[in-house]
From TrEMBL:
Belongs to the azoreductase type 1 family. InterPro entries: Flavodoxin_fold (IPR003680), Flavoprotein-like_sf (IPR029039), FMN-dep_NADH:Q_OxRdtase_AzoR1 (IPR050104), NADH:quinone_OxRdtase_FMN_depd (IPR023048). This is FMN dependent NADH:quinone oxidoreductase. It catalyses: N,N-dimethyl-1,4-phenylenediamine + anthranilate + 2 NAD(+) = 2-(4-dimethylaminophenyl)diazenylbenzoate + 2 NADH + 2 H(+); 2 a quinone + NADH + H(+) = 2 a 1,4-benzosemiquinone + NAD(+).
Amino acid sequence: MATLLLIDSSVSPEGVSASRSVTATFRKTWEEQHPEGTVIHRDLAADPLPHLDGVAASAAFSDPASHTPEQQAAFAVRVKLAEELEQADAVVIAAPMYNFTIPSTLKAWLDQVIIMGRTAGEAPSAKGTPVTVVASRGGSYAPGTPREGMEYVQNYLEAVLGGGMGLDVDFIVPELTMAPVNPAMADLVPLYETSRDKAHEDAAAKAKALVARLAA
């Protein structure tokens, strides 16, 4: 029985959020293809994690037998997140672009779940796990566009998830999501609609392919 770890981080609800809409398509397809599977859903906007502090950080580099009660409680959060990642057969992460980068709630999850010597380091415990990142954005930061140099979502997440944690990272990029509500972008609505439709198609196809791969 396969397990999907789904992480949403948009501050907007599903009916408004482009990233939530696409992760919902991924989940729906996954569950249709694998109804006996398990989905672990973390909504980082509805239930944000604490940002990493000195207590939680120091606990990862000290003997558990010496932990103070505060360190024990803080490190328990990190261990729980690591366990969720380790038991997942696939991961889908919603990473909308806020101010050119990822939401602070998603950064908090990363800072908490990255434990050197466990989920990161020479032998990451979830190495090879397929991760699909839904990197939505209001404009376009694709190669050749004026804002190409301001793309700090895909570049960062490829480095931290792939390079740092050894995960198998793939991206789905719904772009121009502000076109329907920004009059200045009205002429870009057809491109937005094409991008939106492709994102949903890609999410469904990716979910089906992962289920088939896990079942093989």
